[in-house]
Each structure stands twice: as structure tokens, then as C-alpha cells.
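Chapter review: from sequence to fold.
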Amino acid sequence: MANFVIISDAYWNDPFWGTQHYIPHCLAREHTVLFVEKATTWISPLKYDVPRSRVFGGAKLKRVTDNLFVYTPRARLPFDRRYRAISRLNQELLAGELNRLFEAMRIAGPHVISFDHKAATLFEKLRTRGKKCYYVVDEVSEFDWPLASKKAVVEDEIETMRAADAVVATSEPLLEKSASLNPNVCLLSHGVDLPSFSASAKPPEALREIRKPIVGFLGKIEAWVDVDLVAAAAGLLPDASFVLIGPIRTSVDALKGRPNVHLPGACERRAVPAHLSAFSCGIIPFRPGKLTQSVNPLKLYEYLAAGLPVVSTPLPAVAPDEELGVCTADTPAEFAAQIERLLASDSPDRREARLRFSENNSWRKRAEELVEFLGVSA
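The C-alpha cell string follows.
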């Protein structure tokens, strides 16, 4: 049994889980895992929906399972995405905090995996003989963080990639960028929590009342979601219902007033399979841009695990596949036509192919591949 420390850029109880949640969750089946939540800053409650208890509550350690621990670090100085000196100081403070925790928990030689792009100083200061890995899932320079400096974000990530023993990237564009800075890189696409998907999943009552077929999107409705494309496609397919499930963090004025468009809000993570069971087709309507061109959409894997055909705007990580019923389109007319075609041509063979795909792309397999890449022995 090996020891892993996950430096996260998220909270363990986030309503939407991503790679930085599923990987430690699966690693903890066979290894000891310490999940370090992102540190809040003293002004976080002013910028985000962060409870003040995370700022003033001090450090906390919670045992989630026999092998999985979640640590909430002390609050840090603000502006660490703007000023690199503050970033380095915050990393040094966290390293001291974790070194003391390692001793208290008797965690020897842990392997450190950071999902935070600010980790070079942390890697240097942590007292461990284990591997230090940077796991990159997004083009972080394209995020519109409040008070951040793009130059500081880029330089911090470059320094982290160079300081790491290994880098894992989730898409080809991210892999290409990483390989220019670190020779020890690996491509690991996202996965799916297959055990949570079941043929017995029943749609919630609110979705059962919506007219079929349902063309659905499930995820955060951010600025990179092309709501204009969805609105236009909905106008071309008046007999289909378009349902977008998730927290709304951008203008959706283009969707309002359309009788076949529904915005029911967010759902709990554990309810995702049940909501997807109401869909007839899944969509990934991302706007073109550097951020979306580097993404590997987690929802693609969830749609396929739910047995759904998928229509996406063109993305490097979404390869058209007739066997699976996955296709791309970039105009409203093409998008609507592909939805219509996939709904009419779906078959048991395609649904069986999607199940096989999901079995080969589970989070458990991704965790095993990560362990193998890092050369970690039990």
C-alpha cells in the first residue's frame, strides 16, 4: 500500500465532482490517500460563495473511509494568482503545514499529485521521497479569475511543470504543451463512475413530465456554453425538448421564452445518472476558443455511460464515432440535423458499444493507469 497526497483546486464536497475527486476516490481502494482541499483566502467570502467557517475555522482533518482522509488547510493570503511572491509564500506555508501533518499521521514518502497549477515551491519544500506529479486538466491561462494576472498564472504553471517529476495531461493540446516543458508526460483522458449508472435509474418526476424526446445538457452553464446555438437548434426542432441541467453562471436570455427549452437548475452529483436516464440525446455545445479546444469533456463519458448518442461542437477530444453514435457539428442547422439523425438511427448495437466503451474508460482504470505511469509499487 502506497501513500498519496492530492493537492486539489476544489473542495471535497463540491456538488460537481471532477478528475481531482474521482482519482483519489479510486486510489483509496488500495492506497492511503490524503486529499488536501484548496485553501481559501482571507477575502474568499467576498468573491465567491464560500462560508466564513472555511476562513476562520482553522485546519481540519476528516476521515472519509478507512484509507481516505480530507484535510482543510488554514486560510492563505489573497492575490496569489496575481503576485507570484504571494503564491510562493502560500505554497511554502502549506508545505510546512503538510510536513507537520505527515509526521502526525505517520505518512512516509507520499507521492504528491497536484491539480493546482501553483505547486513548484510546494514540490520543493515538501519532505518526501515520493514522486511529484502535476495533473493538468484545463488551459488555466484562459480562466477569467477575479483579480488574477494571466502572466502570473502562465509563469506559475510553467514553473510547476518543470519542477514536477511527471506531468499528466487530459487532452492532446495539453499534452503537447506539457511535453515542451517536461519529458516525462502521459495522456490520461477522463473517465466515468460506471457503478453509479444503472439500468434501473428512474428520471426525477420533473423530467418525466417533459415531452419526449429530450435533448439534454448536464453541467455548469458557463460562458463557454453556446446558448445561442442551443436556442437556434431548439427552434429548428420544435417537437423535441431541450433540457439544460446545471448551475447558471452566464446569460441565458437567448433561451428564455422558448416553449421547448427547460432550465430546471442544478442536480446533486449522485442524481446525475437518474437525470441522464430521461435524455434521448446528449449535447456538448461549447463555443470555440483556447479553453474549450484543450478540454476533455467529462460529460461525454457520462452521456455514453447512460447509453446516449452525443452531438458536440468540434473539439479535439471528441472524435466522431458512428459505432458509438458520436458526431460533431458547428452550425445550428447541422447541429439540429445530427440530433435528428441520431435519434432516428439509434439502436441496441450502439447502446452495447457505449457500454463497452464505458467499461474501458472507468475511473478505476484511470487510477490504475496513473499508478502504473508513476511507477508506484504497493
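Two observations follow directly from the output. The chain has two domains: 3-191+362-374, 194-359. The CA atoms of residues 97 and 286 lie 40 Å apart.
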